[in-house]
Amino acid sequence: MSTSTTVAVRAPADAPRLKIVLTGPFGIGKTTLVGAVSDIAPLTTEAVMTAANTADDTTHTPAKTTTTVAMDFGRLEINGVTVYVYGTPGQHRFWFMWDAIAHGAVGAVVLVDTRRLQESFRHLDYVENAGMPFVIAVNQFPDGQIHPADAIRDALAITADVPVVTIDARDRDSVRDLLIALVEHVLTRTRTTPAKATAASSPPTS
């Protein structure tokens, strides 16, 4: 039986570097996504949830026992570009960290679950108010319904130019295709809109 080893190719020191933000509700797969795609051992800040701190709905993630308390971080090379992926914490009490995580980001991925799309609106509001180009990533859970991209756009009230990509957050190739879609969207937006500083906005309050 043969085995194969994936070797990460490091980009030259002067290669372009892009920082992107990954956001979405609690328990939606952000940590899994970063771990699947990162060329390096990802940085995670998972902590065990206690009974006193389980205010978030775990209906769709009953086996989840940990939560991100600061951020997730990964790095990968895509076509000669170094991409840094920063995942935001999903739980409400850690939202104060969003501004620091989003600072300097050129774009964002908003991860959604079709079983609970309404939980994504705060995250959409944040990236839209920050003026960041973004893509919607539909993490397709086994018991989630499959909807066409236009239906997802309508449900989330986003414009037709925002890419909607269905992914499996556990699959490296699936996530790489998503990040390529975001980079292409960022480049398209850069060519068609005047350059301006991207300022992060304060996390919305409930």
Describe the fold and architecture:
This protein is an alpha/beta fold and 206 residues long. Helices cover 25% and strands 21% of the residues. Strands 4-5-1-6-7-8 form a 6-stranded mixed sheet, with helices on both faces. It has a two-stranded antiparallel sheet with strand order 2-3. It is globular and about 40 Å long.
Oligomeric assembly: single chain
Order of helices and strands: EHEEEEHEHEHEH
Given as residue ranges, the uncertain stretches (5+ residues, pLDDT < 50) are 1-9, 62-69, 196-206
Task: Provide the gyration radius in Å.
Answer: 17 Å
Helix-residue proportion? 25-40%
Major β-sheet profile: 6 strands, mixed
- State the strand order across the main sheet: 4-5-1-6-7-8
- The fraction of residues in strands falls at 15-25%
* Estimated structural class: alpha/beta
- Helix tally equals 5
Shape: globular
SS elements, strand count? 8
Mean pLDDT: 79
Distance between the termini: 54 Å
Based on the model shown, name its key terms.
206 residues; alpha/beta; 6-stranded mixed sheet; globular; disordered C terminus
Mind sketching the topology for me?
Elements: E1 17-23, H1 30-37, E2 46-48, E3 66-68, E4 72-78, E5 81-87, H2 98-102, E6 107-112, H3 121-130, E7 134-139, H4 149-156, E8 164-167, H5 172-192
Parallel strand pairs: 1-5, 1-6, 6-7, 7-8
Antiparallel strand pairs: 2-3, 4-5
Précis, in short:
Helices cover 25% and strands 21% of the residues.
